[in-house]
Amino acid sequence: MKGKSRLFTIGLVSAWYSSNIGVLLLNKYLLSNYGFKYPIFLTMCHMTACSLLSYVAIAWLKMVPLQTIRSRVQFFKISALSLVFCVSVVFGNISLRYLPVSFNQAIGATTPFFTAVFAYLITFKREAWLTYFTLVPVVTGVVIASGSEPSFHLFGFIICVAATAARALKSVLQGILLSSEGEKLNSMNLLLYMAPMAVVFLLPATLIMEENVVGITLALARDDIKIVWYLLFNSTLAYFVNLTNFLVTKHTSALTLQVLGNAKGAVAVVVSILIFRNPVSITGMMGYALTVLGVILYSEAKKRSK
Questions:
Q1: Treating both helix axes as pointing N-terminal to C-terminal, what angle do 213-223 and 226-251 enclose, rounded to 10 degrees?
Q2: Residue of 269, 200, 240 whose CA lies nearest to 50
Q3: ∠ at Cα 246 (244, 250), nearest 5°?
Q4: pLDDT digits (tens, 9 = 90+) for 199-234
Q5: Which of 191, 227, 219 is nearest to 42 (CA)?
Q6: DSSP letters of 24-77?
Q7: Other CB atoms within 10 Å distance of the CB of residue 90
Q8: Which pLDDT value is given to residue 280?
């Protein structure tokens, strides 16, 4: 039984890695290489798939018990989280139009820095000085990587930093807004409610900012039907990122998840360089390695301070 359990865990982790890296690379291919320049519409496709598949997983397949929204206040809290979540995903997709995946991941690794900043600004929660000290290599590594990045794009860099900050803000707000015992939702149920709200936020945005995107997509599909399959597969994969993350969290320890998460970014960098052949410098890789080391030290310091 232990052998089967170990194989099951390895399979889950492999599925988590594959879906994470797969959706990231496919987003990059669609938005940059393929020329489908509609990141808001792409995010809306992701959220639509998450809405439908979350309902199937919870209401039909009973993967987790259905948790209900208990009050109007809780509904507005989830709406606020959904809006911040939309900003983080849309900005992340926009940045992929301008930056290589490797550099995008280097910037994304600074999430702990923004999490610590927002936690202090919003909740006045102070960490141990050792924890703050470990954030120095996190930021320093990105500064080094930015200075030596051959494909550096200022707008893409700013948008990617904003996406990373929004992702950190969402995690801090989630801890605050859904902290009471009666409001706690597991990640599967939270996605079930957040995804449809995200579609509501994204629909007017894509209609206003990406004019006639539906007509353009249909015209593209008439010329190349593969775009339809790309969007369907990409959107389904976006849901499996959330599903596998929940399952890995459930079947491993928090420490294991942190270690796997740190390694996942490095794997994504290597795979993206092999596929897209984007130029990288030795200095840039050293900067990213320093950032990853800082994240590992940060995770260790957080664990010891508890």
A1: 110
A2: 240
A3: 115
A4: 999 999 999 999 899 999 999 999 999 999 999 999
A5: 227
A6: HHHHHIIIIIS----HHHHHHHHHHHHHHHHHIIIIIS-SS-------HHHHHH
A7: 27
A8: 85
Q: How far apart are CA 58 and CA 63, in angstroms?
A: 5
Residue 258: pLDDT above 70?
no
pLDDT for the residue numbered 306: 63
The model's pLDDT over 141-196, given as tens digits with 9 standing for 90+, comes to 999 998 888 989 999 999 999 999 999 999 899 988 888 878 889 999 999 999 99
How many Cα atoms within 13 Å fall on the side-chain side of residue 21? 21
Closest CA to 166 of 222, 234, 94: 94
Q: How far is it, in rounded angstroms, from Cα 250 to Cα 60?
A: 20
What is the rounded distance in angstroms from the CA atom of residue 218 to the CA atom of residue 283? 44
What's the one-letter identity of residue 54?
A: S
How open is the CA angle 97-158-187, to the nearest 5 degrees? 80
**How high is the pLDDT of residue 123?**
87
CA angle 281–283–284, rounded 5-degree value? 65
pTM (two decimals): 0.90
- Cα 274 vs. chain centroid, distance in angstroms? 22
Burial of 156 (0-12, 13-18, 19+ CB in 10 A): buried
Rounded-to-integer distance, Cα 58 and Cα 95, Å: 33
Q: What is the mean pLDDT of residues 252-279?
A: 78
Rounded to whole angstroms, the Cα distance separating 283 from 141 reads 10
